[in-house]
Write a structure and sequence with these properties.
The chain is of the alpha/beta class. The protein contains six helices and nine strands, in the order βαβαβαββββαααββ.
Length: 179
């Protein structure tokens, strides 16, 4: 979906949030004249997969649409579970040990990517490419900011943190121990 921010009535940010909260999972690219950093961050935090400011090149728009198509997976499981962490893709619902956890759409996407591959290490660059696209430079600390937020929410009050940092390599969800 290509969505403009400036719409009559409900703006594109609110529309994007509403779509994500109702389980809409198709890629959303926000295309708008609002090009401030705060606008891009707002759009991405509300659930957009990419953000392109006007004026833009048609070649770039086509390339971003192709990239979004490559990132989406048709085999997305309706539910993902790792240990006592449960995730429901349709509602963006997350529970740990039965406790409901509220995440933004972007936090959910990051946690889901890690949870679908327990034990697999994801380099920062791969996470940026998969979740943020070309709008973020490799030197950005966006991954660290989101990992810190996820740890605070998912591991709140627990000694058994699920998200691990693999020094010099990236991040992973701790694989459940075999019983």
């Amino acid at each position: 979906m290509i969505l403009d921010v400036i719409l009559p009535g409900l703006d594109g940010f609110a529309t994007c949030s509403t779509l994500r909260n109702t389980g809409f999972s198709a890629p959303i690219l926000m295309l708008t004249a609002l090009d401030e950093v705060r606008d891009r961050v707002n759009g991405l935090d509300r659930g957009a997969d990419d953000y392109l400011a006007k004026p833009f090149s048609m070649d770039e728009l086509r390339a971003r649409v192709r990239a979004l198509g490559r990132r989406r997976s048709d085999d997305r499981a309706p539910r993902t579970q790792v240990g006592d962490l449960e995730m429901e893709a349709a509602t963006l619902g997350v529970w740990r040990g039965g406790r409901k956890i509220r995440l933004t759409a972007r936090e959910f996407a990051l946690l889901e990517l890690l949870a679908r591959h327990p034990g697999q290490v994801f380099a920062r660059e791969r996470l940026i490419d998969s979740l943020w696209g070309a709008d973020y430079a490799p030197e950005s600390n966006i991954v660290e900011v989101y990992i810190r937020a996820l740890r605070r929410k998912v591991d709140e009050g627990r000694r058994d943190g699920l998200i691990e940092t693999v020094r010099g390599s990236g991040y992973r969800i701790r694989a459940p121990e075999a019983t």
